[in-house]
Structures are given as C-alpha cells and as structure tokens.
C-alpha cells in the first residue's frame, strides 16, 4: 500500500473494527446454524474492504446492496443487533421476519430491501437514480452486485438506461471469481470486453485504501453530473458460497490457502501496525471485545419476539401515493 498521502479522509482504524465486526457476525451465524438455531447463512468474509466506499457517500444517497455487503451496512449505520434480528427472522427486524438472512434493509438509512433472486436490484436502482435526477436533490445511488450476476439482462438494461439518461448511479461489482461453484474469469463483461472501459474502473477490492481513494474519485465524478460508472472490485470469497455449499469440493487446497493470504482484514491490520497506529496486542484485545459484543447481540436477539403468523399478509403492499400532477409538459397529443 502506497496511499499514505491520499487516504486522510478514511478513518482506517474505525473501518478495521467494523470489518472485524462483520467477520465475527459471519462466524456467529455459522455457529448458530450448526446448533440448529439458524437455517441459512451467506457470509461476507473476504468482501469487507468494500465498506470503505461508505465513507465516500452522504446521508442523502441511496443504496441497493448485495448479500455480501454486511460490512457496508454496518458502516452505513445498521447495528449488529439489527442484523442479528434479521438473521433470526424476528418480529423487530426490518422486514418483520419476512426476509432471508443477509438481505438487509433500512428505510431510515436509504437502504432498499434486496430480493433473494440475484439481479433484481438493478432496475429499481436505475429508477431510484432517475428519481433523484428528476428531483435535483444531488443524491447518488449505489447498486452492488456479484460478478456472475452481471451476465443477467437486468444489469445491461439498467446500465444502458443509466447511460442514456446520464443518471447519478454507481454500479459496484464485487468480483470474487466465482458464481457459486463456477469460475467466472472467462465470462464476465469486464473480462470478455463487452462493456466500454470509458465508464468502468477496476480496483483491488482487498485494499481498503485503494477502494476508498478510487471510490471517492468516482463518486465525485458522478455527483458532478458526469454520468454513471461501474466500479469493478477484484477480491476473494474466503468461504463457501453459502452454508449450503462446500467450496472444498471445487477449490484446491492450494487455491484456498493462497487467497487466505490476501485476507483484507489482515492486510489493513498489518498496514496500520506498520504505520504505528495499532499494535498486535491491542488488536487482539479489540477482537476479543468485538466477539463478546456479537455474542451478546445474538443472545439478546434470540430472546426477542417472533413474528405473529396471523399478521403475515399485512404490509405486503405499499400504500398508494396521493394523486399528483404529471411531471410531463401538457400537449394536445400523446404518443403511448
């Protein structure tokens, strides 16, 4: 890392703590699955450095996150206890127990709920960005995804619409090299040259400083009205795809060991120790405190009330908005 003079806006130690909090949450949920208290898990392990992007945003910005964006949600302001409630499907969770684990939402933080079928966030994100542009509120929209999902039609539809309308939209592609068990190196739009490099920037997604510096530059470009961008982050998925998968079946031991050497938490930790901003002993104490906090949050969430089955059909549709005058200029004839 050679970014000492460029990363003054990144609170690196704070970010490291949140990255470790996300990692410990993954670990705790894996334990709960083995105990029969959880039924499904999607880990963000290896994707944590992407959370540096949150320090480039403003509270007015909108987020359509990806299911490996636990650390991003935490930096944005979602609490670990709220993630525990969501994981356990509790009544006080943001979806009242309706959503799958790791599909976070937080209306108060402008985080939209993401549906489990991959790629469904693209078109709503383009709509959000279009609405922001029409409102002239200066907000931008972030839409995160995995690399394999960029082969789906919704990605191209939303990107084409964003380019056509010059929308304030940032697509964040978290490229971990796999679509579940299928290697993606020969199929992603970046690798096969299917997209213009004019609107795409490739970044080392394991390096929190590089993510922050390039993210800040791209966000400033979008916010100044220079159109949508794709930020392509190369990183590693350090675990199996989900709790229903075992990556040892399709990954060699050498490959797993090699990528574990690129753990973004260890990379950031070692850099801060090198700079004299952290000691290994101090970090060990911090991680122990984080583990205790996560245990307490999940134990407390376990005692929280479950949803009432009789209310399952409530709040399934949004209330219709009040009638408004059209934004379109009046004219005698209309083309439908």
Describe it:
The protein has 336 residues and is an alpha/beta fold. The protein is built from nine helices and seven strands, in the order H-E-H-H-H-E-H-E-E-E-E-H-E-H-H-H. The chain has a five-stranded parallel beta sheet, sandwiched between helices. A two-stranded antiparallel ribbon has the order 4-5. The chain is globular. It starts with 11 loop residues before the first helix and ends in a 34-residue tail after the last helix.
Topology:
Layout: H1 12-34, E1 62-64, H2 70-76, H3 80-87, H4 122-135, E2 141-146, H5 153-165, E3 169-175, E4 178-179, E5 182-183, E6 200-204, H6 208-223, E7 229-234, H7 253-260, H8 264-274, H9 280-302
Parallel strand pairs: 1-2, 2-3, 3-7, 6-7
Antiparallel strand pairs: 4-5
Helix pairs in contact: 1-2, 1-8, 1-9, 3-9, 4-5
What distinguishing features does this structure have?
about 325 residues, 9 helices, five-stranded parallel β-sheet, two-stranded antiparallel sheet, alpha/beta
**Strand elements, count:** 7
Principal-axis shape equals globular
| Low-confidence blocks of residues | 1-5
**Secondary-structure element order, as H and E?**
HEHHHEHEEEEHEHHH
Radius of gyration over alpha carbons? 21 Å
Mean of the pLDDT scores? 93
Q: What would a concise description of this structure say?
A:
The chain has 9 helices and 7 strands.
């Amino acid at each position: 890392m050679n970014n000492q003079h460029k990363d003054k806006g990144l609170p690196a130690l704070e970010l490291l703590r949140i990255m470790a909090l996300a990692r410990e949450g993954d670990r705790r949920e894996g334990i709960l699955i083995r105990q029969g208290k959880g039924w499904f898990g999607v880990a963000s392990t290896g994707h944590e450095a992407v959370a540096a992007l949150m320090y480039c945003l403003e509270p007015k910005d909108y987020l359509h996150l990806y299911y490996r964006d636990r650390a991003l949600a935490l930096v944005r302001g979602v609490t670990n206890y709220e993630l525990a409630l969501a994981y356990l499907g509790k009544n006080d969770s943001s979806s009242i127990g309706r959503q799958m684990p790791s599909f976070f939402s937080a209306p108060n933080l402008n985080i939209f709920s993401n549906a489990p079928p991959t790629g469904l966030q693209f078109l709503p994100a383009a709509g959000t960005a279009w609405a922001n542009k029409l409102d002239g509120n200066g907000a931008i929209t972030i839409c995160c995804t995995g690399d394999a999902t960029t082969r789906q039609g919704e990605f191209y539809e939303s990107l084409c619409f964003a380019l056509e309308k010059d929308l304030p939209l940032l697509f964040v592609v978290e490229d971990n090299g796999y679509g579940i068990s299928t290697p993606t190196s020969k199929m992603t739009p970046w690798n096969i040259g299917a997209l213009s490099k004019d609107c795409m920037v490739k970044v080392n997604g394991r390096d929190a400083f590089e993510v922050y510096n390039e993210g800040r530059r791209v966000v400033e470009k979008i916010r100044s009205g220079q159109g949508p961008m794709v930020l392509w982050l190369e990183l590693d998925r350090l675990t199996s795809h989900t709790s229903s998968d075992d990556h040892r079946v399709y990954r060699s031991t050498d490959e797993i060991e090699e990528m574990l050497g690129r753990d973004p938490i260890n990379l950031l930790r070692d850099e801060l120790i090198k700079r004299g901003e952290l000691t290994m002993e101090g970090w060990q104490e911090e991680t122990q405190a984080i583990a205790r906090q996560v245990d307490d949050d999940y134990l407390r969430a376990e005692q929280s009330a479950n949803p009432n089955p009789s209310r399952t059909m409530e709040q399934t549709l949004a209330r219709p908005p009040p009638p408004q005058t059209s934004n379109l200029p009046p004219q005698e004839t209309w083309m439908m």
